[in-house]
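[job 0412] stage=fold_complex status=start
inputs:
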Amino acid sequence: MKKTSPAYIIIFIILICLVFGIAVSAVHYLTLDQLQKNETLHRNRIICRAFDLPVSGSDVASYQSSVDQFIRTDTLDYQNRKMEIFRYAGPGAAKVGFTFSGMGFWERISGIIVLSPDLNTVQNIRFLEQKETPGLGARIEEQWFTNQFKGLEIDWNAPVGERVIVGGSVAPNAKNRVNAITGASQTSMALGNFLNAELEFFRKAFSNSPFQTASLPQKKKLF
Amino acid sequence: MADNPKTIFIKGLWNENPIFRQVLGICSTLAVTNLLANTLFMCFGVLFTTALSNFTISLLRNQIPRRIRMIVQVLIIASYVMIVDIIIKAVNPDIHRFIGPYVGLIITNCIIMGRAEAFASQNRPWPSFLDGVASGLGYAFILIAIALVREPLGFGTLLGHALPARDIWWHQWTIMVMPPGAFFMLAITTWIARNLSSEKLKAK
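[job 0412] stage=fold_complex status=done
writing structure:
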């Protein structure tokens, strides 16, 4: 059969697609179990870091054990939307956290934010998934950025979009403000926007749930 | 085409460097060089993919119909990139979380397609493999050189570690974080490299 004949071309392309398709699929299926374990490890690790939980090791079992021991996972069902929340059941203050998600500059960003029992202060924030620009928006996962949220006060008196401020030049010393990322204005703005929306949803859903133990956020001035 | 390994390496690393001589792979050069760690991972991905895809395309070079050779080359390159992506994701998910966005970019890297078309489709498998390695190393050489300037000036760090006494002397060059800084650094690096290589050619 001549290499220039249509029959040869069609047979060749089908064969090469089959060979490489099977190779890629094989690698994918061989690693499926490991990918699932990695996903579970990643999620539990983020929960442990968000709540500052003690962990005995660095393997899947250690993180799972810590989460099982100190965290109660529940679901808020409010206005046709389910939100996963985490209630700290260890010694000390009864922190509460929830999984947030929103549209970043490129794709969805998700993470876990932990609040104080009275919901007035952010204790910690950690990101589960983000696909922002590496070196720019992706830096939201770096410690210097997430550390800004520790102790951040939420201005519940402000309009929804200004309860937590990411970047911007207005009120640079406000206690509810964190610095944006240089060169990642769109990611920073998007994060601020959906974080405020998620906080608002959580506040309403949590106050209408049987899990709420603290009073609703009190009005107070922040600066 | 010369099959001498030394010649292949010298060409890939310097005389026919894919960045400053052939001006290929510029997109990723501009995108990843603001951080050295990202640069190193990208370089590894490109080197691995270029070498293996060159080898495979060379093995099949006498069977691939001329009319569909580019389609087949892209298919082979994309397959290797996907395999690399899946393996990194399974073996080290933390690194994959770091470099995942770059891995897909490797498919569109002109260097890989360029070497497949210019060398692998016309030479034997082993020299093609070496050519892939040499091109990858030449690419890595320039990218690392640029990143060694951009990250310290733009972030005050190197591989994520703060520079010594940074609080005393360092001022951020925001432009080095942004794409325009990449353009400037690429142009300067190209100018320096071409001048150095021109001197060597004149000396001969």
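[job 0412] summary: Chain B has one domain: 5-203.
[job 0412] exit 0
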